[in-house]
Amino acid sequence: MKTTVEISDSLFAEARQLATRENRSLRALIEEGLRLVVGSRRAKRGRFEMRKASFGGEGLAPDLASGNWEQIRQRIYEGRGE
Questions:
Q1: Which residues of 8-47 are buried (b: 16+ CB within 10 A; e: fewer)?
Q2: Structure pTM?
Q3: What is the pLDDT of residues 6-27, one digit of tens each?
């Protein structure tokens, strides 16, 4: 993808000199820099983990353990509005 980015003249000159010294294209140098920055942000952010939201109990009621979703849904809404 092509894009236009404005950077300071001094930073551009340094980047071009570095790319020349390392026998790399300016594009490769810029891509590497962006990957480093984006990767470090991801590392700082870390993995998403859900908080523990369970409550005391012994899990699914025994009579629903082998049931299907329809049975579970009926139990949830039992006595509500019908």
A1: eeeeeeeeeeebeeeeeeeeebeeeeeeeeeeeeeeeeee
A2: 0.49
A3: 999 999 999 999 999 999 999 9
Query: Could you give the CA distance from residue 60 to residue 78 in angstroms, rounded to a whole number?
Result: 16
Q: Are 19 and 28 in contact (CB under 8 A)?
A: yes
Rounded to whole angstroms, the Cα distance separating 4 from 6 reads 7
> Mind listing the pLDDT tens digit for each residue in 33-59?
999 998 887 766 777 777 887 777 777
Residue 16's contacts (CB-CB under 8 Å, 6 or more residues apart) are 26
- Classified as helix, coil or strand, 59 is coil
Distance CA 59, CA 44 (A): 35
